[in-house]
Amino acid sequence: MAQRPIFIPCFHSDCLVRIEYVDFVWYPGIAPSQRKRSVSSLHSAAREKDLCKHPLEVSTKSEDKVGCQLSAFNLSVKTEKHKPAFTVETAFQSSKVFQNGGPYEDLLYGSSLSAKKDSRIKNSGDLLKFKFFGTEWGLEPKTAFYDWLFLNALKKNPWAIEQLDDFDAFTDIEFNPKKSINCQAYSVALFQSLKHRKLLDKALENKKSFLRVLSIHHSCDTHRNSESQQPDLF
After folding, report:
1. Percent of residues in the chain assigned helix, strand, coil, to nearest 5
2. Whether residue 201 sits in one domain with residue 164
3. Using DSSP, how many helices (H) and how many strands (E) does the chain show?
4. Does residue 29 sit in the same domain as residue 62?
5. Domain count, the chain
């Protein structure tokens, strides 16, 4: 058995994204077929708990084409000022500023996998901040910069936006909150919540506006709330 979070957009409360934890049968192995079996198991368990009816796996392991295309490795954006396309992943990795180097801007227009595995990312000391096209972001709130990148990229891909309303929850089988911080499935759920509240344009005006919206609203992590007296898992 394994446990993974499922991210549910909220449209009518202070909570932007509800995070529920689901126990399900895990199929070991690195083969894509095994990951897809685990995704199916996770989604079946979430439906049985009445958490959702139509979940979408947001990763390269998704059975849905849109879920695979929305992976940070694949979701690309081309701006008017910067003509070459780049992905969310290359934008994120190329923006990291470490104690002993960075940002490594040459990673922006390469492949997502190369950017993530670049030796400089692992060997440059502690992560201090992010710097993207001249704008600096701190490490708090923890997922703010990643979410900002993802939401801006998603907004520039209307083909995906049109399909997201077919789903009521989002997962990422590779995301383990005990080991990672940022999650593409959470970012998609956040996008949906802000879009339906008509807060998306306001939130994405600039960094200041985005952080203000996040400070007013929040995410509801039922697992963490129920274990408030336990050590932080993140």
Report:
1. 40, 20, 40
2. yes
3. 11, 10
4. yes
5. 2
**Tens place of pLDDT for every residue, the chain, 234 residues?**
999 999 999 998 889 999 999 999 999 988 989 999 999 999 999 999 999 999 999 999 999 999 999 999 999 988 777 668 999 999 999 999 999 999 999 999 999 999 999 999 999 999 999 999 999 999 999 999 999 999 999 999 998 998 999 999 999 999 999 999 999 999 999 999 999 999 999 999 999 999 999 988 777 776 544 333 332 222
Structural domain contains residue 232 = no
Residue 190 CA to residue 19 CA, distance in Å, equals 11
* Domain range for 116: 83-132
- Whether 209 contacts 203, CB under 8 Å: yes
In single-letter form, the type of residue at position 84 comes to P
